[in-house]
Amino acid sequence: MPEIDAKRAEAAVRELLIAVGEDPDREGLLDTPSRVTRMWSELLSGMSDDPSRHLERTFEIDHDEMVMVRDIEFTSMCEHHMLPFIGKAHVAYISSGKVIGLSKLNRLVEYFSKRPQVQERLTMQIGKALQTVLQTQDVAVFMDAKHLCVASRGVKDDSSNTITGFYGGKFQEENTKAEFLKYLDINA
Q1: Residues sharing a CB contact under 8 Å with residue 53, sequence separation 6 or more, in sequence order
Q2: Which one of 85, 99, 109, 178 is least enclosed by Cβ atoms within 10 Å?
Q3: Is the model's pLDDT at 1 over the cut of 90?
Q4: What are 125-145's pLDDT values in tens digits?
Q5: Catalytic positions, please?
Q6: Considering only CA atoms, which of 73, 93, 70 is closest in space to residue 84?
Q7: Over 70: is that where the pLDDT of 186 sits?
């Protein structure tokens, strides 16, 4: 995808300010269109990124136990209201002879979260991408996020979080899923 069209985005923000009754030429708002454009460029940077570049290097290793990276912080943009949702992802897999650098799991979460999203799709995209690169169905992803569209508008519920999960292969079995979920309770 192409980079953000900054000139067009700034003009749109300016028009939005006018549409809501603001004066985009007043002192406090003069630089707002460019600030908002830079923010959106950062929040939506995954649209111009290719996840495969983060997952190219795998290692052959004789390891058949769970590998987990927990508490991966992320921020994504709700595609319905264009407000952020912020949370933590927990990603695990059981190797079928291939492992990936641990930081690559963080990068995978980052890549898919930096685009207009719904949490359900985000969770599945991370799980399926990991299944593909590691050539295993044995992948689990658990995401817990606060949605600002729920907290700041409509129902205005600031106390609720949204939980989504993806459980493939052995993680669909009761014992493996329970072990994965138990690891999430550590230091809770």
Answers
A1: none
A2: 178
A3: no
A4: 999 999 998 999 999 999 999
A5: 78-81, 119, 147, 149
A6: 73
A7: no
Q: Residue 145: beta bridge partners?
A: 87, 162
Amino acid at 161: N
Under 8 Å CB-to-CB from 180, ≥6 apart: which residues? 66, 68, 92, 140, 142, 171
Residue range 38-46: mean pLDDT, rounded: 91
Give the DSSP H or E segment for 123: helix 119-134
Tokens representing residue 51 in the block: 């996840």
**Residue 89, C-beta contacts closer than 8 angstroms, at least 6 positions apart:** 72, 74, 109, 126, 141, 142, 143
Phi, psi for residue 78 in degrees, rounded to 5: -60, 120
* DSSP line for 7-71: HHHHHHHHHHHHHTT--TTSGGGTTHHHHHHHHHHHHTGGGG--GGGGS--EEE----SEEEEEE
Contact present, 6 and 33 (Cβ < 8 Å): no
